[in-house]
Amino acid sequence: MRNRLLPPFSLFFTLAFASVLPFGLEVRAQTPVPDSPAPDSPAIEARAHAMLSKLTLQQKIELLGGIDSMYTRPMPAIDLPRFKMSDASVGIRTWGPTTAYASGASLAASWDTDLARKTGEALGRDARARGVNFLLGPGVNIARSPLAGRNFEYLSEDPYLNSALVVPFIEGVQSQGVIATVKHFALNNQEFNRHDASADIDERTLREIYLPAFEAAVTKAHVDAVMNSYNLVNGVHATQNPVLNLQILKGEWGFEGILMSDWDATYDGVAACNNGLDLEMPSPKFMNAKNLLPAVKAGEVKESTIDEHVLRLLRAELRYGFTTRPQFDPADSTYSVDDRPLAFEGALESITLLKNDGKLLPLDHWKTKNIAIIGPNAYPAVTGGGGSSEARAFEPVSILTGIANLLGPDAHVFYSPAMPASDDEKKAIAQADVVVVAVGFTAATEREGHDRTFILPPGQDSLVEQVVAANPRTVVLLTGGGGMDVSRWLDKVPALLHLYYPGQEGGTAVAQILFGQHNPEGKLPVTFDRSWDESASAKWYYGDPKDNTTLHTTGADGKPLDYTVEHVKYGDKLMVGYRYWTTTGKHPLYPFGYGLSYTTFKFSNLTAPATAATATDSTVPVSFDVTNTGTVAGAEVAQLYVSDPTAKVDRPERELKGFAKARLAPGETQHVTLSLDARAFSYWDEPAHKWTIDPGKFILRVGDSSENTPLSAAIELH
To answer: What pTM value is reported for the model?
Structure first.
């Protein structure tokens, strides 16, 4: 049993500095939340059991399903009210307009753990302002393929980066008295056919690539809710998968919170109940009295199993004091002016400069008198992808608005969503000092429930080609959750930036970066492939129809139901993203971790012990210097990769095991020290079913991307 306290609910301050945004200086104290008994204390355990003892079997079963789409079920017999949920990732989506923060992919592109914590805290405050108890996020699934429709929610392609960001994010949410829900457990790496697709995967790949972020959420951040995914894993739906839910989550990791289904992701009430699912959402279509009462009577389900599900619900609700205090906090504003700087910070830190030939950027504010802003994503603002994470911002700032605001009334701004038809308007483009073209995906073309294309939406490639033919001083801005095909025009365009989905303040952030008021500091959280065919997962992304199987089950109406299961074989195994490219020696268009700056940096003085022990409780210190060798201030992300050339098994050529973000003035040097624990050198030993280290030589590599690691040192583990 864990013995931890929620962080004290004293005073929380948010400072919105006038030098960052023209929103003024604000200091806000949050209303303290009364202290509650320690989690899993005798008092909570006794109260939970006392409440359970007053319930009939039918009442217990009723608590295992949600009600009214976004609530847990109330139970008057024990004075238990219903508790409120909200979709989330970039904002409190379900309950009206909200602050829309930058997307999960944007957060990953920032490589900033402090930003992750602050974003979690802000979402927690926004939830309290709406009386929300459960935040249905964050999502941490691996970006295995650029086609996956929810990559924009899911951070990155790397398990270490995802783990490093999700822990402070969850701690931030839960510090505000709101339960975070890490999702989607597990292997929700495609949206196409998500209800009927089975992710068929070997144990080692599952453990090394797809589970570490969930493990960190449970064992380090102590997340109090986990959401199962829609898909099957090795032929068994996640909501009734004993390996995922009982053996790993509740067994090995010791998860003591609530395991809930995704909405309508339950397929068999008895199997789900017996295999770890505590709460079926949004309603008990399968885990209901009609199905479970006769199952208990027939001995197919033990009443003690149902009791344990109910106790998990009660413990979590008591742990947070939901039954003894109002969840609505009047000190938190529904319209949160003081969180706008944070939304801006998320956009500003994530925007990634991919190309800057001839140093076209930054633009000179005083010399730019005529600017053309073209493209479907220039206006209105594209804040996020589509589906359950899509937040409706109060006042989103479009790219057009952000640039026009920065340039002021003396500049001439020409805007068109497409290539103009008239000759006069085409001179407007040709004679502009610079043209900004905003293309990519939107909530309509990249969204939950659908995968997207690798090529840009129809007409956009042609648009870029026409614009750059008219005016070679063209900057292209991409919106989307990952890489996309830019091959038709990239060699003709001098400057390219990736915006991901920058949230409500994206337009302001874009303007400040284009005109040099902020130095771009984003780094790719995914590999940017040249083409879909070159993607490491392309061969394995869709199942082969000849491998389809038929699953026999019972529908919610009690009638027999057969449906076809698509078996998606994870034949790429460990070769996800940069692991594939660095291992094969090939090169993508832009590597993982890559991003340009308006300044330059140098890495030097790498030091690490020559030998170290493999003890599980020991760490290896790795130190080096990062210097800003340019003329303007900037931020660099120093990335530490580990190679194991003497391993007894095949391993990726290198794997990210540490990083640090350094903000440096011109000429400034920062000494960085990172610590590598045993897991940094380990692989999953499939026959032994455990993490293991092969003693021998390891190579430590430091640089600014997965492919540019100028520093290296050898270390012998014994």
So the answer is: 0.94
